[in-house]
Amino acid sequence: MEWVITAEGLTKKFEDLTAVDRVSFRIRPGECFGFLGPNGAGKTTAIRMIQCVSPITAGKLEVLGMDVTERPREIKSLIGVCPQEDNLDPDFTAWKNLLVYARYFGIGKGQAEARAKELLDFMALTEKKDVEIEKLSGGMKRRLIIARALMNDPKLLILDEPTTGLDPQARHLIWDKVRELKRRGVTVIITTHYMDEAQQLCDRLVIMEKGKILVEGGPASLISDHVGSGVVEVLSPDEPLDKWLKESAWTYERAGDRVYLYTDDNRKVRETILKESPSANVIIRDATLEDVFLKLTGRGLRD
Length: 303
Prior knowledge:
The structure is a single chain. The protein has 303 residues and is of the alpha/beta class. The protein has two domains: 5-223, Rossmann fold (3-Layer(aba) Sandwich), CATH 3.40.50.300; 228-286, Reverse transcriptase/Diguanylate cyclase domain (Alpha-Beta Plaits, 2-Layer Sandwich). The chain is built from eleven helices and 14 strands. The protein has a six-stranded mixed sheet. Strands 2-1-4-5 form a four-stranded antiparallel sheet, with helices on one face. Helix 3 (94-103) packs across helix 4 (109-122) and helix 8 packs across helix 11. The longest helix is centred in the middle third of the chain and has 16 residues, at 168-183. The two termini are 39 Å apart.
């Protein structure tokens, strides 16, 4: 299979709202593909159409070589979904949650137990097998939800903000598991508000805004194409420096009391600024995917 997912002119409308507006993208087997965007950008709606839980309004969408409008049950049987919310059954233990979930896929008891044991070990939860859900930490619950999503041995795994609210140790453990799944040939789709997470995990990604795809590509190429290799931050520039920046040819952005200059030569820019204003507070750093995200979608809050 050349493409795990093919979307052409994909559209989703809710009465007067166009949540996804004629987007097109393709996802290769075995890659981690990210959907990024501010709240209301349309990424979750796109994911729900891929899951076959929200019918498409227009366009074409194929998942694992099947049309979502014609074979949704077959598609659902071959994908795993880790939802954004915690929807584990609080009345069951970790072990029982996995076994009950296996029944939805018609997995026999023996196979389900073997698979559950394997996945608890894979997600470092073996010692929590018989623990009730309410006694698990947030990180343990997220790992268990991912384990549950893998019970049917899916060809495609969808992770909707898998590490929100987790501490750094739990986040990195989940990152390691995602990389291991990729090595095993599982195709992974991820939505996240953590730009460092997308930069670490995604082979390719799209950034969406108002239902449309703004850009698509690998993290490194997007950084290079849209902001360059480095960022120079100037804190509270004085009036002469502020005037000089406006007259300069450099690309920069203002946010609050800071000015961000995007450049491929951090040191030269910093030295030039300090010549103009020796007391300026200047920070130089490598450019990141977050710089791309903020430059393209803005810094204003989204509700």
